[in-house]
User: What shape does this take?
Amino acid sequence: MKFMKLLFGFIIFYFIVVVFSSMVNLAEKLSMGNQWLLVGFYVFMGILFIRYILYPLLKYIGKPSIKDYTLMFDHNKKAASKIKKYLKRHLDVELVDEIKAIDDPDEFIAWCKAYLEKEVAGFSKIIKTFAFKLSSAVLLSPNSFLDGITILYGNSNMIYTLSKRVHVRYNGKQLWNMYFSIMSVASISGLIEEFDDVMIDIFEELLESIAEKLGEEAGASITSSIPIVSIATKATSYLLQSAGNFAFIVYNGNKFKYMIENLYLEDKLTQSAINKASRAVARKSKLKYVSDLSKGVGSKFSFKGKFNKKAKDATQPES
Assistant: This one.
């Protein structure tokens, strides 16, 4: 496990260096030697970093943690007071009035559990929306390094959105593990496309050899259709990458969902069970995602076949 973390740590570091180098090269090209434009570019990038990375992170850290809620549900008065003060500042007026009317600690705990359960009910829709947006953005992205940044921002923004809905955040260690896993996937996704052509060449050779054998067995040449292999390979590569990104964000979202549910459900799950359940949902969603996209492609070919048939029928003389 330590070796894998060191390996991913190196990949993340290399990805950050490459992204920074790409940004410097882009700044130099856009500035065209003008120092004011160069400074303006870096100021603009700094503002984007503060607005979309640093500011949300600071707001996220200010929320009560999963540990705080666990302590409160174990009747810790200090944790209950901290959460109550936070909720009074951030909930809608109607809900704040409800909280102010509660004096009994057990009643407040019951109210919080009911509130969490109600808000978690909408998590699945949010997770699915983010998954589709992120996978589509990566699928259409023209640059491999933009893919990595998109995955990093998309996953972080989803967790922030879910956390904002229930006013609960990960603990420090959980937050570190989440960002490490996201950065690992983002870095790999951003770098793997650099070797895309090599993978396609290998895949093409494999398909050609299979097609030749099938042609010999069928008594007809199938290799005449091999030029389409390049297109199919490229499409398959993008499809699998998109499906992988879709599954990854579903995994991250459901992992957070199960950890919040674990706060108020009677039958508690271990962290291992939560991870396992999240992976199961992610695998299922990945298969469905690929199936849905495949059906979409198939329907286009089916439409084309119907169109050709109609065109052929239209050229036939009327009886």
